[in-house]
Every structure is written in C-alpha cells, then in structure tokens.
C-alpha cells in the first residue's frame, strides 16, 4: 500500500502543488491590491476632480486584466488546497475592495500554510 503524502505549502513533498499555487496567489493578490489602491485613491480622483482621465483608463484596464489572473490563481489555489466554496468566494471578493485584499491574502496564506481550509 502506498502511503498518502500530506500536502505542504512549501512545495516539497507536495503532490498537489499547493506551495507553487500559494506563491502565484500571493503575488497576484499583492499586485491587484496595489493597483486597486492606486486606481481608487489616485486615478479616479484625478479623473473626476482634475479632468485627467489617462491614469484612470490605464490603471483601470491593468487592474481588470490582472484581476482575471488573480481570479485564476485564487481558484487554482482553492482547488489544490481544498478551500471551502465560501472561503473561495470571499477571498475573490476581497480582491475588489481596496486594502481588504491585503488582509484576505494574509489570512488565506496563514490558514493554507497551517493546512486549514479557507
């Protein structure tokens, strides 16, 4: 009988690739979080208060495309780490709220590393 290997987020002895998926998720969560803060707190006010639409257009487009990659990275991690559907949806939604995305990333990382379901 073959012994079942336990998934570890370090990537060593990890049959499901949780460690690599966690790294991808963390990178995308931070990139999307920073872009969303820049978009909401810098570009949108520039657009509406100073009539400078350029930054809003560029950051909005970048955030949209990168959020799609964040979505894929999150779903990939959720499937590999066997997150609950509720945890997955809440983590995905947190990527749309400025600053909350950083809290959600820390929480998801800590729980995944501890082997808990998000």
Describe the structure.
It is a single chain. The chain has 118 residues and is mostly helical. It is built from four helices and no strands. Helix 1 packs antiparallel against helix 4 (100-113) and helix 3 runs antiparallel to helix 4. Residues 1-7 and 9-13 have low confidence and may be disordered.
How many strands? 0
> Strand-and-helix sequence, N→C?
HHHH
Structural class: mainly alpha
What's the rounded overall pLDDT mean? 89
Kindly state the percentage of residues in helix: over 70%
The whole-angstrom Rg is: 17 Å
Give the overall silhouette.
elongated
- Residue stretches low in confidence (pLDDT < 50, at least 5 long) are 1-7, 9-13
Entry keywords:
4 helices, 118 residues, mainly alpha
Summarize the structure.
With 118 residues, the chain is mostly helical. It has helices at residues 18-49, 54-81, 85-94, 100-113.
Q: How is the topology of this model organized?
A:
Layout: H1 18-49, H2 54-81, H3 85-94, H4 100-113
Helix pairs in contact: 1-2, 1-4, 2-3, 3-4
């Amino acid at each position: 009988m073959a012994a079942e290997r336990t998934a570890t987020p370090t990537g060593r002895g990890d049959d499901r690739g949780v460690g690599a998926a966690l790294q991808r998720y963390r990178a995308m969560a931070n990139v999307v979080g920073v872009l969303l803060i820049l978009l909401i707190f810098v570009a949108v006010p520039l657009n509406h208060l100073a009539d400078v639409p350029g930054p809003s257009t560029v950051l909005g487009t970048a955030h949209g495309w990168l959020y799609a990659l964040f979505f894929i990275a999150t779903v990939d991690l959720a499937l590999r780490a066997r997150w609950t559907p509720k945890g997955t949806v809440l983590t995905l939604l947190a990527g749309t709220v400025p600053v909350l995305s950083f809290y959600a990333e820390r929480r998801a990382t800590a729980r995944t590393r501890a082997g808990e379901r998000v």
